[in-house]
Design brief:
Elements lengths: L10 E7 L9 H4 L2 E4 L2 E6 L16 E4 L7 H4 L7 E9 L8 E6 L5 E6 L2 E7 L5 E4 L9 E9 L24 E6 L2 E3 L9 E8 L3 E12 L3 E11 L5 E11 L3 E11 L4 E2 L3 E2 L2 E9 L2 E17 L3 E4 L2 E2 L3 E5 L12 H14 L3 E4 L6 H10 L2 E5 L11 H15 L5 E8 L10 H16 L4 E6 L13 E5 L11 H12 L7 E4 L23 H16 L7 E3 L5 E8 L2 E5 L13 H10 L5 E3 L11 E8 L3 E6 L2 E7 L6 E8 L4 E10 L2 E10 L1
Parallel strand pairs: 24-25, 24-31, 25-26, 26-27, 27-28, 28-29, 29-30, 30-31
Antiparallel strand pairs: 1-21, 2-11, 3-4, 3-5, 5-10, 6-9, 6-11, 7-8, 7-10, 12-14, 13-14, 14-17, 15-16, 15-20, 18-19, 20-21, 21-22, 22-23, 32-33, 34-35, 35-38, 36-37, 36-39, 39-40
Amino acid sequence: MFKNQYLYKNFFILLVFSSSIFQAQIAFVKERNHIELKEWQFKKGSVYNGFKKDVNSNSWEKVSIPHTYSMDAINEVGYYRGESWYRTPVNIPESMKGQRIFIRFEAVGHDSKVFVNEKQIGTHSGGYSAFCYEITDAVIAGKEALIAIHVTNEPNFKRIPVNDKLFNIYGGIYRAVQIFSTPKINITPTYYGSSGVFVELKKKDKSRAKIEVQTHVSAINPYETSKVEYRIFDQDKKQIQSLIKNIAITTKDTVIIQDIDIDNPILWQGRKNPYIYTIKVTLIHNDQKDHVYQSFGLKTFKVDPQKGSYLNDIHYRMYGVCMHQEWRQYGPALKEEHHRKDMALVDEIGATSIRLSHYQHSDLTYQLADEKGILVWAEIPFVHDYSGREGDNAKQQLRELILQNYNHPSICVWGLWNEVRAYQSSEEPSVLLTHELKKIANDLDATRLTVSASDRGMQSNMGNITDLQAWNKYYGWYYGKYDDMATWLDESHKKYPEIALGISEYGIGGNAFQQDTSKIEMPFGNYFPEPEQTKYHEITWRIIKDRPFVWGSFVWNMFDFSVGGWNRGGISNLNHKGLVSYDRSVKKDAFYFYKANWSNEPVLYITERRNNIRKSKKNLVKVYTNLEEVTIFVNDEKIAEEKLTSKNNLIIFRDIELNKGKNVIKITSKHHKTIYTDEVVWEY
């Protein structure tokens, strides 16, 4: 689609995302005549001809979308990996008569076959991206249609990921499903499930930006007298530009390209100012109109091996977290409120970036990152192991990831693989596939860099193929000591000055309900005390913070998440490395450590609050804060005052004496005439 760029050039990015005018997750669907398919019948297991109208479905379970049939992955050791069926009758609205009709799934885990009125209309492999089919010839407006979908999450060596060693492969229709209609000539919704509209920044200076808008048009028959109307709005929804172009549609599929100028452009400046424009593209033929609203931001992004990352030519530290898409109560079948809660927590902690591991997330997650100004590492699930037979599917999922999300200004890099190893040679299938994936990404979107996450050395068969390289480093947990992170960074930076260094994952396990560090059993035991996790992050963040050449760093993980069959840290089927518990009920101490270091909001927090049974009369009280001075009280008696001098934003009160029984430890701090307080109850 676009020309290639090189690593150290400025990467001008103008990317589209769903307008805040419309609260729908997929605006280009909801803006059209549509219905949402929420209520379904569900049957776990094999059903002969489950798509037939005469199948007896009286015993089928009634479920609501989003839905997964793999919750046993969380609650038991091991889980069901197999097929299931979903069915629902749908009244196709009379208002869709004479129009083209489509069905769109935002995601289904993981392989699916879709049937409409007993006719198979499509298959899709890949559990995280959207897919859309035209069903005009299979339904009749004003009449009922039967929609049936066969789903399986069983292992498939021709699909990525090929196994579930690092995270669960959930089955089900766990994101939204819609049927919608368009005029006979439309902005195509079937181009890899995308909006059909793509915008690229061609030139920019202080007075003017030139954008190129590509609109993919689909027509049943040629139309020689059509028009495309473009209207651009600023962040206050004021129209600042408009243009109408006469076009001739001479083929069934056409790409319309138009340059448009924006005067006095305002940049999308991350958390400082995520400025948003909106474009409305309308396709007009006689009295038929099809339109798509999209929003966009203007930015440049580059990485320098010596100085780190730059946003709009200003040094911009990329620090943040990795995140999976699941909750204990729901698995991946999350509602809008859950996505908003998760991104609100990422925003609260003060992260400037997020790595959405290890697959395409909900469109709403990217929208929220756009609005909050959080840079995104988006990636495909080419993870850990490979079969040598998944190449076609990996390339398909990469195209879907890029084209469906090309229009989000928050995304700055495309991730091609995580911890994929090639031990034998540079001719292994995974290495050759990486070269192909990089070419696809660069051809589709030259405005962004590609990246990969390695757990090997600085040089490896898989390493340094992508534009950027980052490393998953777990010093002090799986190997070595916590301080080894500093040694590795300094030695690698000195030996390979031409390679930009990033930390794609770092962290250790922490069970919020285990507090005795003398009992620690790492990394595969049953006792992962929370204070040890906190200690690790205090040391490791200081190391990263003091080295601005690190282009990006991402805590593994924002939230605890499930790995079926794991039995570590006192809770089975759980990876405990999160800063927040799996059910979102507990923000661990390490969460507040990063909030004190990253957030601009006032932070005042007493650590080890869950270590509330004390065996010593004299105790250390550690406080995370970004406030200038803190006063401590014990049972309403003022004990001491301390000024903040630590570069890690912590204050330590030593030899704080407790009375026998319960003690109330309280801290206070004044900031801009506001008094902030925090308190805990410890029993001695």
